[in-house]
Amino acid sequence: MSSFQTGWQQLWSIVGKDLRSELRARHVWVAMALFSALVLVVFYFAFDLRVENRGPVAPGALWIAFVFASVLGLGRTFASEQEHGSMDRLLLCPVDRQVIFLAKLIGNLIFLGVVEVVAVPLFAAIYNLPILGGALVVIVVLGTVGIATMCTIFAAVASTTGAREIMLPLLVFPLLIPVVIGAVRATQSLVVPVVNDPPWPGLLAAFDIIFVTISALVFQYVVED
Amino acid sequence: MNADALSMPSATAETDGRMPLEQEQRTAVDVARVRKAYGLRPVLRDVSFGVVAGQCIAVLGPNGAGKTTLLRILATLTRPARGSVTIAGYDALHEAHEVRRVVGYVGHTPLLYDELTAKENLLFFARMYGLPDGEARADALLKRVGMRSRANDRAGTFSRGQAQRVALARGILHDPPVLLLDEPDTGLDEDAIRLLHDLIAERGAAGKTTLLTTHTLERGLAWSDAAVVLTDGRVAYAGPSDEMTLPDLRLLYANARRSGR
Fold first, then answer.
1. pTM of the model
2. Crossing angle of helices A97-126/A3-25, nearest 10°?
3. Which of B3, B38, B228, B247 is the most buried (most CB within 10 A)?
4. Are A103 and A7 in contact (CB under 8 A)?
5. Residues of B with CB below 8 A from A93's CB?
6. How far does the CA of residue A122 sit from the closest CA of chain B (Å)?
């Protein structure tokens, strides 16, 4: 078996293990979905969302819901491994560290994707915005890759510290600003088209490529002593 | 007591990262002048010893002597600040991926995935090691450690001893030439202790090497061919186990405690 085939098999074994564990424990999914729904509802009542300002404001609520839910839930993916010491056991295996990072990232994308499948239709219904469609799916996917990548790498960093619950948002929020701006603006443009707006989906894709590449390269130094 | 009885020639005998064949067959583990510190506190100070293939070595020492750090370095989980470690002819610093293929590790905590069953835990690690016959191997080992009847139960429902039995099966899943056991007897009942002893003896007969740490000194000396005693990060004794008596060993521990105050 070639090293690529071995790495491929290991990648999907780790993803499968994480999904199976989560399906049985339901620690992350339920909390993330409920939290993002609550944020959407709270924002709806907190702001004066009349018809004329709903378009520019509502996408911010959607992406803040995703970011908060991600930090809440995705931080657990490494924290639980670290608490049980099972990350060490995984690191003892002859598995490329980039394979472990990509597996964790794919797992987190799936976790977040499931939450979004619930939250996006809820968002469209609560805020009464007819934006469901292919363009929104592209923007959500691009934004989600950026959020999940940053949460994955910094969850690994935070899991090695004592105050991981506090460290993760402190580390992640500043670095997520470009992704949040890009995703919010791109979503706003679906509601209220803006002339001469920057190509936000393209910028999001560029952020994603940069974040995924750098994170995969530094992951080894984050998890190894 | 002979502090260098187990010391082997190290880097001088190596050629492009691997030992000559004759020595590779004899020396399973070669630790040369290894140093490690956490912050300003030194944990290992110029630790050197060698292990002949097929031997069981007991790494003994009081709490904080550096045993677990040494095993973590051998397992490639921690990098030494200085020195070299060679396992089965591979340099643990520069060929860590290869070292991980030939090393098995069982810690004092089982480190199982609680949501997976015993068999799923073993199958997952069989895939990590790329074992072609993972299913058959997992079944055989679960039977060997007396956990076949619990194969499809979640690890989170196991007692400490049961989980440690599964961890033991996982440690030898890929039949590693070098097995590191960090206080593996913690939480095991008499039956499981016998099982552990039998496994170590079988490995020795098959020419495979085991490094064992334990706080049960009688057991450590009785089970091993040689002992390395660490006190305050230094090798205080390295030599045949039958040349180390329990009173001598306890004296080393007492001296270490006194100097640590």
1. 0.87
2. 40
3. B228
4. no
5. 100, 125, 128-129
6. 31
Alpha-carbon separation of residue A159 from A45, A164, A171, A220 (angstroms): 35, 5, 12, 14
Q: Are B102 and A10 within 8 A, CB to CB?
A: no
In this structure, how many other beta carbons lie within 10 angstroms of the beta carbon of residue A113? Answer: 13
Place of tokens 């091993």: B224
ipTM, 2 dp? 0.87
**Which CA distances in Å does A36 have to A32, A33, A41, A79, A122?**
6, 5, 9, 21, 10
Helix axis angle, B118-128 relative to B134-144, nearest 10°? 130
What pLDDT digit, counting tens, does each position of B199-219 carry? 999 999 999 999 999 989 999
Using a CB-CB cut-off of 8 Å, the residues of chain B touching A13 are 124, 127-128
Would you say A127 and A44 are in contact if contact means Cβ atoms under 8 Å apart?
Answer: yes
| Helices B160-171, B190-205: crossing angle, 10 deg rounding | 10
Structure letter (DSSP) for residue B89: T
Are the beta carbons of B75 and A92 separated by less than 8 Å?
A: yes
Sequential DSSP letters for A100-153: HHHHHHHHHHHHHHHHHHHHHHHHHHHTT----SHHHHHHHHHHHHHHHHHHHH
